[in-house]
Design a protein that fits this description.
The protein has about 150 residues and is α+β, with helices and mostly antiparallel strands. It has two helices and eight strands, in the order H-E-E-E-E-E-E-H-E-E. The strands form two sheets. Strands 2, 3, 5, 6 and 7 form a five-stranded antiparallel sheet that branches. It has a three-stranded mixed sheet with strand order 4-1-8, with no helix packed on it.
Length: about 150
Amino acid sequence: MTAFTIPKGWFLVATGFVLLLASQTAFSDTIEVRFYGFRSSEGFIAFNVFEAEKSDSFPDKSTEAVKSYYLPLDGKTEIVQTIEIASGDYAISAMHDEDGDRKFRTGLFGIPREGYGFSKDAKVYFGPPSFDRAKFNTQGISKIDIKIRYF
């Protein structure tokens, strides 16, 4: 009885195919995020994407974000950024860094002096919204709009 053997070349092709499929599922969702409502077209939009596993870091611990961006407005009043992330629950926090100092400036009693925004248009009452109020699931979503607000 003769044993069945697979040619070496086919093993490499099959391994490559499996690795290709694995890389496709690691970042399986592409989402277009649009920021609008800027009071000026100067400065930068800084935003962070937080995953559910790090929900306690939302909205301001950017080192814990799964993705972080700092994009120049360059005279625009609307910015669109495409992001690729694995399927799951996420929340986005954003700020309009008008002076480019990479800090979120606040005034008396912590009232923001620069623009801010959150996914699902989560409202600010006596502090930033919780992760759950800004949370969205990537399944079936291709676009998210985030309005930048000011006090």
